[in-house]
Amino acid sequence: MRGALAHRDVIEALRPFIVVAVTARHEDDMPREVGELSRGARNRTSNIHCFVLDAKARPAGSFPAFRGSVVDHERMARGICDELGRIRVELPKPPEPAMHLPDIKSGVRVYLSLRGPSSAGPRPPGDAGKASEGNQYAAPVVECVPIGERERKALAKPERARDVDAAELRAWLEQLTPPAIMEGMGGVKEISGALTLEPSGLLRGDVKLVLDDPNRSSCRGRLEGVVTWKDGAFATVRAAFEGVFGKPDRMRRGTMDFTMKGAIESRPE
Amino acid sequence: MKTLVLLSILAQDDAARVLEKFRAARPSDEALAIYRHDWAPTWEEAKERASKEKRPIFLVTNTNISGPTNLYTGHC
Questions:
Q1: Is A232 part of a structural domain of the chain?
Q2: Rounded distance, CA A220 to CA A255, Å?
């Protein structure tokens, strides 16, 4: 779905809109009016539904995100644009395009990009919406996490190089797990690794995350970052993660390796 | 003293190399195209803004038994 939403035609078609996604295990867990809309639209073809509502949040039309069994973002994008053209709702002049990344007052922003085993080389610009194996990873994950006392203490300025248990940065590092696991709860069961923090600010080491799915899928990689301090206290961090996510194939005969690239940046800048 | 200066220079080189890795790992604006939508992080905020700005809402709902998901941030 995110690949279709990243398609340039969908971006253009949705410019007048405020876009919001509401996700939950059950409709009962959604805001009441959204739950009612979702319940009313439920069908057997898709668990993702799109709604167009006017400025007073009155429904003007709806449609399922998926048509057919194959996830083809190009086709999904065409479907969204067709449906948007069919549904009548007053469209004001769209605002100037801008980036609307998830943000946080005091914390870190974590980016994660994955590339499937069949993808050779980086995708060309504007190609994010095209179908390919592993296309659930067509758009990067961007999560924001607060900085807590635990992380501040772990990253306090050392007098000499010292170890930092990767588990101390769990809240940040667990964001470096792939989406669309479809098994388990999509969470991290174990996190391990010894990082070294140097007085120069360099932070580096290997990290392993074991997921909570029955296959104990795991992500392994190397984290390297630069920490800065102000008056001896943690101030900023910028870090890169390069790793591999091993996902058992559907026949469970082997593992498909997905290349992972992560970046962590403290907010505000 | 010379050793300390040398260590400091090496640390600066390492830091520059790590920051370059960070820049390479951070997705480009092109890759982050999904964030060109005018996202509201919550339904309540979407409603409030729609009313104030007199703009329609595009709502995506997702029921997922395997866990809470988030189409906006991407762990879906």
A1: yes
A2: 14
